[in-house]
Amino acid sequence: MFVMSNTEKETDMKRFTLTLLLIISTVTLQAQTKISGMVTDEKGEPMIGTNVMVLGSYDGASTDINGEFAFETFEEGVNQLQASFIGYKNTMASIEISKIPITINLIIEESINKLVAVVITAGNFTASENGN
Known about the structure:
The protein is α+β, with helices and mostly antiparallel strands. It has one helix at residues 6-29; strands at 33-40, 51-54, 60-62, 68-73, 77-84, 91-97, 102-107.
């Protein structure tokens, strides 16, 4: 049976603590950038459920009941932020991601769809066996 002395236990504990601190500092160096803001329509009303994302990544969020969103990303440099909602035009904004929190407000415009009128004409007729 292997028995460790107190000195060996202290050394192992110091190694474990040092390794843990190294791992934590490495994760901290790869910190994410927080992107937050609000999406409104042309009238200034909050847009609930709008999807906001960094294009070319899986990073994004949907707006809440107040039209606000917040998410974090590892992306860096100049990127495109997109807001999209059914029935509205996609809104794009260029942002510089550099580990500094970003707050951006977006205005999304309604997509106007023209409806073409369809006229249905109905008539009546009678059928008989006499051919009349």
